[in-house]
Amino acid sequence: MKAINQYLNLAVFLSVLGLCNGYSQQLIDQKFVVLLDPGHGGSDSGACSLTGTMEKDIVLQVVNQMLNIQRDYPSSSLELLTTRQEDTLLKLGVRSQMAIDQNVDFFMSIHCNYAASKNAQGIEVFTYWSPSKVGKISILYAFGLVQGMSRHLDWPSRGVKFANFKVLRDLDKTVPSVLVELGFLSHPEEGILLAKPETIRDIAQGLYYMLNQYSKL
Ligand SMILES: [Zn+2]
User: Fold this and answer.
1) Domain 33-214 is found in CATH 3.20.20.80
2) Where do the structural domains in the chain lie, given as residue ranges?
3) pLDDT tens for residues 45-101?
4) pLDDT value at 17 more than 90
5) C-alpha 40 to ligand 1 mean position (Å)
């Protein structure tokens, strides 16, 4: 709720740029389909918090919570899919190919951050730099997500960054895509918060709310 003005601003911004018209038109009779991608899994645990909580488990819980929220809104214009619902490891190419094969409208990979410095904290969103229409939409979605989640959780925003990550590069001309780093498992406070069920629920609610706003653009 805190970020509602921001989404309205984003909608206006997208309209002014003429970026959401095509998407809105093609979504009149269909849902805005988002493929969620909880990072890592199986033998790849990702980063680990100071108390031993593994990134692969946190991001899977976030996604499963988002799928639970979806069940409460069956008539929503948002439809969430996921690359994995269990503790399994998928190759990066398989994740991006799922987005292409399922012809989704948006791909969002979800991770937790880690740094050598214990002072690093906050949320950041990565996207792949591309001058294509898909690339521009990715950047706008990324800005909305990082600002919205920062306000929703009251955690610092580290902004939008460009990265040559395979899952993003694979989709640069086909599917708007971002990689969200929820917070730092290496930070003494954020790392503990990220492992708490109430924080995971809060993150899931924030992400669901923002994607639901995007589904209405
Ligand atoms: Zn990760």
Assistant:
1) no
2) 33-214
3) 999 998 899 999 999 999 999 999 999 999 999 999 999 999 999 999 999 999 999
4) no
5) 6
Question: Do the beta carbons of residue 200 and residue 61 sit within 8 Å?
Answer: yes
Q: What are the start-end ranges of the H helices in the chain?
A: 4-17, 21-26, 55-71, 92-101, 133-153, 166-169, 188-194, 197-214
Tell me the CA–centroid distance for residue 5 and ligand 1, in Å. 30
For the cut 80, the answer to whether the pLDDT of residue 19 exceeds it is no
Per-residue model confidence (pLDDT) at position 217: 84
What are the tens digits of pLDDT across the range 103-145?
999 999 999 999 999 999 999 999 999 999 999 999 999 999 9
Tell me, in angstroms, the distance from the centre of ligand 1 to residue 29's CA.
35
Q: pTM value?
A: 0.89
66 exposure class (CB count in 10 Å sphere: 0-12, 13-18, 19+):
buried
Rounded distance from Cα 41 to ligand 1 centre (Å):
10
Expressed in angstroms and rounded, the spacing between residue 38 Cα and the centre of ligand 1 is 9
Ligand 1 centroid distance, CA of 27 (Å): 31
